[in-house]
Design brief:
This protein has two helices and four strands. By secondary structure, the protein is an alpha+beta fold. A hairpin with a 2-residue loop joins strand 2 and strand 3. The chain starts with 9 loop residues before the first strand and ends with a helix.
Length: 83
């Protein structure tokens, strides 16, 4: 029960890219950064930087949310959280 009360940082990865520092320094308001994933592609959900699920973007009360479509098994999640 003690472990169930430990807070976790949850993050969702929309995509990744690599860029040169020079390109980063030239970014401004309205700049677009192209990511590795296609529009509508499944997003990855991480707990403490470990993959725990995948999902898709939804809008709930004018805010973004994630609908889970695939969840890593509990045993695999515990293994991955442990390092």
């Amino acid at each position: 029960d003690f472990l169930l009360d430990i807070p976790l940082e949850i993050s969702v990865e929309l995509g990744r890219t690599k860029m040169l520092i020079n390109d980063l320094l030239h970014l401004g308001q309205g700049s677009v950064i192209e990511l590795s994933k296609l529009a509508g592609e499944t997003l990855e959900i991480f707990a403490n930087q470990r993959l725990v699920a995948r999902g898709e973007v939804v809008v709930v009360n004018e805010k973004f949310g994630i609908r889970l479509t695939d969840i890593v098994s509990p045993a695999d999640r515990i293994k991955k959280l442990g390092g």
